[in-house]
Amino acid sequence: MRVVAIDGPAGAGKSTVSRLLARSLGLAYLDTGAMYRAVTAEAMHRGIALHDVEAVAAMSRSVSIEVGERGVFVDGRDVSEAIRTPEITVNVAPVASNSAVRADLRDRQRAWAVEHGGGVIEGRDIASVVFPDAELKIYLTATPLERAKRRAAQYGGNVEEIAAALAERDHRDMSRPDGKLQAADGGHNVETDGLSVDEIVHKIVGLLDHDESLDDPDHEKGS
């Protein structure tokens, strides 16, 4: 099972890079953040209070969640557009910090990898918790200002305000007790400031090729 695990803060370009990397490697791609957003959207759709830890976790365990090329579905209902709304973005934090939800979704993520024979999987704790033995572990990052510029170019808004919001979210993600944002042991930090998507993917493929050469028993012989 070949797993490339990509973690990093919001706005670092994980989804775009991971999707393109998966295509270039011929692997499946999984956006685990979409799973947490899907649970959030479904809880709100059902009128479940997001801070009701047990109720949200019970709901999460009871529904089917599909994340793939077709989009994102909860019990067959297409939530692909709903999960990307500002309303979900500002409300996903209590769901993402719910340990019971995280345990459920981690099991699903591992099952997905087995079903697909691995894949490029991105999120916040993929390399550090979900797949600590991944073939390649990447922490994709950029400065808050760089990430803010990208967000502003894509969605509009004031760069300084976006940068401040991203820095605040970084602190929250790095401080939560379960699934906190951090670089994994044995992984590679990839700074993306000033790099195009193609350049980032090329850099990651180079790291993969380098790690594979070190694992080659003939490497020490120079063959």
Tell me how many strands there are. Answer: 8
How big is the Rg? 18 Å
Q: What is the overall silhouette?
A: globular
At the fourth CATH level, what is the homologous superfamily of the largest domain? Answer: P-loop containing nucleotide triphosphate hydrolases
User: How much beta, percentage-wise?
Assistant: 15-25%
CATH architecture of the largest domain: 3-Layer(aba) Sandwich
Biggest sheet features:
5 strands, parallel
Q: Do you know the CATH topology of the largest domain? A: Rossmann fold
Fraction in helix? 40-55%
Number of helices: 10
Broad structural category:
alpha/beta
Q: How far is it from the N-terminal to the C-terminal residue, by CA?
A: 26 Å
Lateral arrangement of strands in the main beta sheet: 2-6-1-7-8
Spell the H/E element sequence. EHEHHEEEHHHEHEHHEH
Report what the structure shows.
Strand 4 (71-74) and strand 5 (77-78) form a beta hairpin. Helix 1 crosses helix 10, helix 3 runs parallel beside helix 6 (99-116) and helix 8 (144-155) packs across helix 9 (159-175). The chain has a five-stranded parallel sheet. The protein folds into two domains: 1-28 and 119-223, Rossmann fold; 33-116, Rossmann fold (3-Layer(aba) Sandwich), CATH 3.40.50.300. Helices cover 53% and strands 16% of the residues. By secondary structure, it is α/β, with parallel strands linked by helices. The chain is globular.
